[in-house]
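Hey, I'm writing a tutorial for new members on how sequence and structure tokens pair up, and I'd like a real worked example in the thread rather than a made-up one. If someone can provide the structure for the chain below, I'll link this post from the tutorial.
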Amino acid sequence: RFIEIWNNVFMQFNMAEDGSVTPLPAPCVDTGMGLERLAAILQHVHSNYEIDIFDALIKAAGRETGTADLANPSLKVIADHIRATSFLISDGVIPSNEGRGYVQRRIVRRAIRHGYKLGQKTPFFHKMVPDLVRMMGEAYPNLASQAQRITEVLRVEEERFYETLANGMEILDAALADGAKVLPGDVAFKLHDTYGFPLDLSADVCRERGLSVDEAGFHAAMEAQKAKGRAAGKFKMDKALDYTGAGNTFVGYEQLDGAAKIVALYLDGTPVAELKTGQQGVVVLDSTPFYAESGGQVGDEGVITSGSARFDVGDTQKIKSDVFGHHGTVVQGTISVGDSAAA
């Protein structure tokens, strides 16, 4: 049999969209021979996955997923991905929903899904970091010094995904249960939007079953939601409150109540001097313990009192980055701009 060690790619031209070619300023040769292929040659094995590094990581994946059959291809995926994700974290790439962080999240979730496929229903992936550090920490001291941080980042990401993984897989299975050959685009989008399944993860599952995903339908559903979001955002901006005063002091990290002064009131989006019993409006204070909706966390609810008057706060939103608007209803008395209050 033949084993490919390298393949020479002679890079000489740049091809434009119209098919025309122009010479590269610096032609070169790409051999395609990476570290693993060199190691395979020197260790007299037939594939990258048989070298010492991967042998140890595949055994670790088998241990953590309770899989005795070390030839199972899912173990190779997990072994490859623990190395990739750990080095990414050591280089400062944290799982997120955009850019390189999203690539990282997709790699982590793909590995977790393969563990789930092997019957592992609780977090396991982060437990392989010490095995990786034992194999590669000496050559890459940065990996060893950050082992605890890498483990923690992966553990948090894993626990977050496991909370929704089972529900997402149930929906995916149900959508494919009646012999469907294509996963509908709207289902793929729901899996992405609600359960954190990247499109390529749904495509992976379908590919294993000889099925495909309606990618055009997925992108159409994505665009429809973006358009809806833009429309909602525009509406919110049209209704923005006109506030030109000083920013407020947020004391909510230290305390849940505090003394304050009412610096502005709004009724139907218009500045007013007072709000009376039964009126719904927005109160701005000079100091507040109320947390305004931000970063996915909902705004606080509570009570603002001034003398015998009482304003029930149902939500707290930012008017500006340092100005919080307390949305609610006056349930007793009248509150006025300039009043002292307890929040």
